[in-house]
Amino acid sequence: MMMNSREGGSAMRKYFHSGKLRLSYLDFGGGSERTLVMLHGYMANARSFSELALRFRDWRVISLDQRGHGWSDHPAGNEYARDDYAKDILNLVRSELGGDPITILGHSLGGLNAYQFAARYPELVKAIIVEDIGAEINADFSFADKLPIRSASLKELRESLASAGLRAIDYFAESVFEDELGWGFRTDLKGLRVSVPQSNGLWWDDWLGSSSPILLIHGGKSFILDTEQAKRMEQRRPNTKLIVFESCGHGVHTDDLDGYFHAVNEFLTEQQPMEIDKRNNA
């Protein structure tokens, strides 16, 4: 494992290997034995959760740059299958987190990866927060083909997002960086053509495939998940709680950070007595 300096005085960037890929994550520290792993959405990165992560002072918070995003490698052979994402989380848990069960918070792509990981490795998951992604997914990221590899200025790059028809400019702009060629996205744009179709589909078996408590957070104005499906997800899966933020879009954690933290923190606090009971009865 290799480390860089602390970023913004709050997190340590670290690296590990998942197969042939070197993946990156931010470790926000904390002396707690409880670990909260955060998984971002498409075209975001580990830093997207920085404000949120700092609020969970009673947890060790880990925010992963998922493959093809942030400072993590882009797979040369376009390996973006569902199992590839799940194995990355598994390798993170085993190599960096001592193999102990974790709590996972995932937004969009990260939410899908979170509940699919729980279905595959239920013994490694205590609880899950799924933010605005469904069990039936039909996302369209064809706009990525219209984005330039580099732009001459940050203003020009943001304008390219608007020209591609996107409204959540700030959300997508969080993954930008500058190098000697100009401004670009720290995301494998070509890889989205491979990854997104493999994320689309009917995933009810995975959604129903674990028994860990799930908090499903939905933005009432989301362009990814509709409220009717969110309600069905709560109704069909035991041990699931739905909270709808009516005035928020797809990125609830950015649209209403205070409300989002309150909802997640309350949910996690409710799980603590259950964990204590399990340990006492073991």
What labels would you give this structure?
Rossmann fold; 9-stranded mixed beta sheet; globular; 13 strands; 24% strand; two-stranded antiparallel ribbon; alpha/beta; 282 residues; disordered N terminus
Total helical segments: 10
Adjacency order of strands in the biggest sheet: 1-2-3-5-4-6-7-12-13
CATH class: Alpha Beta
- Let me know the number of strands: 13
Task: Give the fraction of residues assigned to helices.
Answer: 25-40%
Q: Describe the biggest sheet?
A: 9 strands, mixed
Terminal Cα span: 34 Å
CATH superfamily: Alpha/Beta hydrolase fold, catalytic domain
Sheet-strand content, in percent, reads: 15-25%
Shape: globular
Rg, alpha carbons = 18 Å
How are the elements arranged and paired?
Elements: E1 3-7, E2 11-18, E3 21-27, E4 35-39, H1 50-53, E5 60-65, H2 82-96, E6 102-107, H3 109-120, E7 125-131, E8 136-137, H4 154-163, H5 169-173, E9 176-179, E10 182-185, H6 189-199, E11 201-202, H7 204-207, E12 214-219, H8 227-236, E13 240-245, H9 252-255, H10 257-281
Parallel strand pairs: 4-5, 4-6, 6-7, 7-12, 12-13
Antiparallel strand pairs: 1-2, 2-3, 3-5, 8-11, 9-10
